[in-house]
């Protein structure tokens, strides 16, 4: 995420959820929700700028603590019954999953630190005043970003502006859900042949979405009218969910998706590198076996997470953090049998979704890539994705990307495509008649900028260069959530998109970007390049 926007987003989208007018919610019988395994009352009422009151039910457990023998396993959602009424009132960050934010991540107070705990599989539910069971209002479910290494269910996220606009438009209602998930060592440590599960951080999000599909009617929501939304790592996990089990088996627990900047480096033959990463975790924990790692205290996981993410140089090439290939989703040969782009090309994907919005920023790679020492460093960047790429492959890619005098842009454009834009391109090509595609080129057009537009609150809390554009963006998102016409052309065979700049400009996918992504896919699919 860019230096320009992360500071504003961190303070606005994270803190405004708590700094806007909030009061403890007095107990009212009508506000109590019985989930069967626990009874919850709202933690706070927040009020939007137009006076819309929203009850926030915080820290609802959706899976058991992934500790002990549950560590590194698929989330256990068989929850025990709790008698006491829960109000979710817990100290800030006390339910965060273990997280590490490297020093170069520009978040004052968090950068360079490690925090959190293993017992963290909780979610929040936002319910506007007047919504009752049986209303069957639509639902928006958010998966947060953070390079698969840091963040929480409140970070980079404040839906109060959306509630405000929906209220102003037609008095309509909808419910919002946001969840935590395991990150870093806790969420993405696995190795073939070991007694653990792969990609459990992503499976946490899937479990949270299934919780929503099952329980949201008790708050007044519709469990079969769910739109998931994610940016960066959150979007990357939705992207991988689209190919779970090669598109076979149980349907996804949501019907629509808004996917912004899907961070998913293409690592096809991941097992050897996952094993190397697993060995790094063992060494950092002073362990030689999984049994040792599973029995280690929580403090050891915090220390290991800090060492591998904060104290070691990242070798991933973008999208994830840590040594080797970093911590993030990768093919495990089981739930994710191959990289999404390969499965999508073969038609092995979930096609039951009704609509998708898939977007990227024009300059995703600016300030998210290593842009020093170009073009000399460029072969290293390419081999972080394709380790055995030969000189001929490197030269072919360089010929496509490099324009003398634009050395930094070489790094930016490669990272934009390899980590973000080509994922969006491949997904849109897989479901062309259901996908609405955008590229946001509103200056500075950097990674994370669109967050402040579709989660816009006001000019003070979420400053943007064009508030009218932010409201127009939000109106389209709300039309998606409601299941209404978005006035947005389908991507289709013509590869139609919106270029979001001063407005929504109808155009087609730039030919140069198509050619670059097609070339990247060819090289990634070629086994001689080791992707």
Summarize the SSE layout with pairings.
Layout: H1 3-14, H2 16-19, E1 22-24, E2 33-34, E3 39-40, E4 44-47, E5 53-61, E6 99-101, E7 113-115, E8 122-128, E9 137-143, H3 160-170, E10 175-179, H4 184-188, H5 200-215, E11 221-231, H6 233-241, E12 256-260, H7 271-284, H8 290-295, H9 298-310, H10 340-345, E13 355-361, H11 378-385, H12 391-401, H13 407-430, E14 435-440, H14 451-454, H15 467-482, E15 496-500, E16 504-508, H16 511-525
Parallel strand pairs: 9-10, 9-11, 11-12, 12-13, 13-14, 14-15
Antiparallel strand pairs: 1-4, 2-3, 4-5, 5-8, 6-7, 8-10, 15-16
Helix pairs in contact: 11-13, 12-16, 13-16
InterPro entries: AB_hydrolase_fold, CarbesteraseB, Carboxylesterase_B_AS, Carboxylesterase_B_CS, Type-B_Carboxylest/Lipase
EC number: 3.1.1.-
Signal peptide: 1-19
**Please, how many helices?**
16
Work out the number of β strands: 16
Q: What do we call the CATH homologous superfamily?
A: Alpha/Beta hydrolase fold, catalytic domain
Main sheet record? 12 strands, mixed
The backbone outline, from C-alpha atoms, is globular
State the helicity in percent bands: 25-40%
Family: Belongs to the type-B carboxylesterase/lipase family.
Organism: Triangularia verruculosa
GO molecular function: hydrolase activity
Protein name: Carboxylic ester hydrolase
């Amino acid at each position: 995420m860019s230096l320009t926007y992360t500071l504003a987003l961190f303070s606005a989208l994270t803190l405004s959820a708590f700094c806007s007018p909030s009061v403890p919610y007095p107990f009212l019988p009508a506000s109590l929700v019985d989930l069967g395994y626990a009874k919850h009352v709202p933690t706070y009422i927040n009020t939007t700028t137009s006076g819309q009151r929203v009850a926030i039910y915080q820290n609802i457990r959706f899976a058991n603590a992934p500790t002990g023998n549950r560590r590194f396993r698929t989330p256990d959602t068989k929850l025990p019954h709790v008698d006491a009424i829960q109000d979710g009132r817990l100290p800030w960050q006390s339910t965060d999953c273990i997280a590490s934010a490297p020093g170069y991540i520009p978040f004052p107070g968090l950068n360079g630190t490690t925090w959190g705990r293993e017992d963290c599989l909780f979610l929040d539910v936002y319910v506007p005043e007047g919504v009752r069971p049986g209303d069957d209002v639509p639902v928006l479910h958010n998966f947060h970003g953070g390079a698969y290494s840091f963040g929480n269910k409140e970070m980079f996220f404040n839906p109060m502006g959306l509630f405000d606009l929906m209220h102003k438009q037609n008095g309509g209602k909808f419910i919002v859900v946001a969840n935590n998930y395991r990150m870093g060592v806790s969420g993405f440590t696995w190795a073939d042949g070991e007694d653990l599960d792969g990609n459990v951080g992503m499976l946490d999000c899937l479990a949270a979405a299934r919780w929503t599909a099952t329980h949201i009617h008790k708050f007044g929501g519709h469990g079969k009218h769910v739109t998931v939304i994610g940016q960066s790592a959150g979007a990357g996990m939705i992207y991988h969910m689209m190919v779970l089990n090669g598109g076979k088996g149980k349907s996804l627990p949501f019907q629509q998706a808004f996917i912004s900047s899907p961070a998913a480096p293409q690592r096809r033959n991941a097992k050897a590198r996952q094993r190397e990463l697993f060995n790094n975790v063992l060494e950092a924990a002073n362990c030689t076996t999984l049994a040792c790692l599973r029995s280690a205290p929580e403090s050891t996981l915090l220390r290991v997470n800090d060492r591998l993410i904060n104290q070691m140089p990242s070798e991933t090439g973008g999208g994830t953090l840590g040594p080797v290939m970093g911590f993030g989703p990768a093919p495990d040969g089981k739930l994710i049998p191959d990289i999404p782009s390969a499965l999508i090309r073969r038609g092995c994907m979930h096609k039951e979704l009704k609509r998708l919005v898939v977007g990227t920023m024009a300059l995703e790679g600016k300030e998210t890539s290593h842009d020093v020492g170009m073009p000399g460093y460029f072969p290293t960047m390419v081999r972080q994705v394709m380790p055995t790429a030969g000189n001929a492959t490197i030269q072919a890619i360089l010929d496509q990307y490099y324009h003398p005098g634009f050395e930094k842009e070489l790094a930016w454009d490669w990272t934009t495509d390899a980590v973000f834009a080509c994922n969006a391109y491949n997904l849109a090509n897989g479901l062309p008649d259901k996908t609405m595609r955008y590229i946001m080129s509103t200056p500075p057009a950097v990674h994370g900028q669109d967050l402040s537009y579709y989660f816009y609150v006001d000019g003070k809390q979420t400053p943007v260069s064009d508030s009218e554009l932010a409201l127009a963006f939000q109106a389209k998102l709300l039309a998606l959530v409601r299941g209404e016409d978005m006035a947005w052309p389908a991507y289709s065979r013509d590869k139609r998109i919106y270029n979001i700049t001063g407005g929504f400009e109808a155009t087609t996918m730039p030919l140069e970007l198509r050619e670059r992504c097609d070339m990247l896919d060819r090289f990634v699919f070629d086994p001689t390049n080791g992707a």
